[in-house]
Design a protein that fits this description.
The chain is an alpha/beta fold. The protein is built from 15 helices and 12 strands. The strands form 3 sheets. It has an 8-stranded parallel beta barrel, surrounded by 5 helices. Strands 6-8 form a two-stranded parallel sheet. Helix 13 packs parallel to helix 14.
């Protein structure tokens, strides 16, 4: 790509989440949150898929890497300087709810926590890096989970109101771009992450999940309205996990199945956030799955009045599906299900790599909603090796990102209004799904390992200079 495709002022940067890289879990008055009780390794995946998790830690049996992360809490100046060296225009980060309200239900916030993020935002401002802040990124305070049952409980709307208003009031002069709930549509697949509860049983999962989602829809809409009141000119987006759904073949039954799966996964939450109403297909889906949503008077009006300004989304993979499938046909590693796509290769963790799918995603989203879009997560988790000369030759990551950025450019030429791109895990961090350090995404290598060893030393990978060139050229130099 040699001609300029991306608009002037395009927001290039990187993305992180507090629970995966911040550390300092017992510093600065912070309370425990969901991520603190999730063990590292294969045990985490089992918990995500199970029911009845008790949210207790067993330090004799498991390790808990999220406690330490990569210690951004104490090393933020060093890391932000590296982001600035790459030329970041924007840095996507989240705020740890339990750092601001340790239990989640207090009436007054923790000043130490607020002051920490003041320092982070001031450091970003020193380098003219715009913060893009996710308010809730898989970090429900543990007390709200144990005492109230997570987002199944309507009371969390009130607690989130207080939390969001506190952030908007404190940082009104420092943060313009906000996201409400991370990957909100993933909640029906993994309610533990987004909704802060483990389903009572597989049979009740959908009822519990959609009730929790309704509470988040109301909370998000209220937050959008409050942000616009407190911070004139602020931009508040939703955040989806997006995966185009391909039919396995041209069998009309499979095509219809893929269409329904795409509507449910990709557009249900988007319709509520952007159009301000439940989608047209919701009534039939709820009826056929025996889902009954408890709503209060005024909820639907609140949702209608609190629509978002833009859509942000994560894109890692597409999904191929068919109506009837055997266990042997299932895609290995794709967290969102489906069958193996014979035309795609996969990452070290089995995630199918589909750059064209990103162009498809951008066109599908823009075609449906006609609002600005931002890709806020996209990256390759891989095993990185330090060579004898100390370098890290991650050409595979450069290849992955290059092809995805090229397809973004094609989508812009298609007419999509794309305003930013933040590569996921711009610095190595703890994997959300597996709790591993070894699943590395960053342009910056962090000397920390699954067995807990490591110095936390930061080291630039080959992709560091490559991404710096991409940003300097506004996406025209990708080779």
């Amino acid at each position: 790509m040699t001609e300029q495709v991306f608009k002037d002022g395009f927001l290039w940067g990187g993305a992180t989440a507090a629970n995966q890289f911040e550390g300092g879990y017992d510093e600065g008055g912070r309370g425990l949150n969901l991520a603190d009780v999730l063990p590292g390794g294969k045990a985490r995946l089992k918990l995500l898929a199970s029911s009845g998790f008790d949210f207790e830690m067993d330090t004799d049996k498991y390790s808990y890497p999220n406690h330490e992360g990569i210690d951004f809490y104490n090393r933020y100046k060093e890391d932000i300087a590296l982001f600035a060296e790459m030329g970041f225009k924007v840095f996507r980060m989240s705020i740890a709810w339990s750092r601001i309200f340790p239990n989640g239900d207090e009436l007054e916030p923790n000043e130490e926590g607020l002051a920490f993020y003041d320092r982070v935002f001031d450091e970003l401002a020193k380098y003219d890096i715009e913060p893009l802040v996710t308010i809730a990124h898989y970090e429900t305070p543990l007390h709200l989970i144990k005492e109230y049952g997570g987002w199944k409980n309507r009371k969390l709307v009130e607690f989130f109101d207080r939390y969001a208003e506190t952030l908007f009031t404190r940082y009104k002069d420092k943060v313009k771009y906000w996201l409400t709930f991370n990957e909100i549509n993933g909640a029906t697949h993994m309610p533990l992450f987004g909704l802060g509860f483990s389903p009572e049983s597989p049979e009740t999962r959908l009822q519990e999940s959609f009730q929790g989602l309704h509470h988040q829809f109301v909370a998000s809409a209220r937050a959008v309205k409050k942000a616009h009141e407190i911070i004139p000119g602020s931009q508040v987006g939703c955040m989806l996990i997006y995966a185009p759904v391909y039919s396995f073949d041209s069998n009309p039954d499979n095509v219809m199945h893929a269409r329904q799966e795409a509507d449910l996964f990709n557009f249900f939450c988007g319709d509520v956030h952007v159009r301000g109403a439940y989608p047209y297909f919701a009534d039939r889906y709820f009826e056929e799955n025996e889902i009954s949503i408890e709503m209060e008077d005024g909820d639907l009006e609140t949702i209608q009045e609190g629509t978002v300004d833009f859509i942000s989304f994560s894109y890692y993979m597409s999904r191929t599906d068919k109506k009837e499938k055997t266990p042997e046909e299932l895609g290995q590693g794709n967290l969102i299900g489906g069958v193996k796509n014979p035309f795609l290769e996969a990452s070290d963790w089995g995630w199918e790599i589909d750059p064209v799918g990103l162009r498809i995603a951008l066109n599908e989203l823009y075609g449906r909603y006609q609002v600005p879009l931002m890709v806020v997560e996209n990256g390759l988790g891989a095993h990185d090796k330090i060579e004898e000369d100390g370098s890290i030759q991650d050409d595979y990551r450069i290849d992955y990102l290059r092809e995805h950025i090229r397809e973004m450019g094609e989508a812009v030429k298609d007419g999509v209004d794309l305003i930013g791109y933040t590569s996921w895990g711009c610095i190595d961090l703890v994997s959300a799904s597996t709790g591993e350090y070894s699943k590395r995404y960053g342009f910056i290598y962090v000397d920390k390992h699954d067995d807990g060893s490591g110095t936390m030393e930061r080291r630039k990978k080959k992709s560091f200079d490559w991404y710096k060139q991409v940003i300097e050229s506004n996406g025209t130099k990708l080779d």
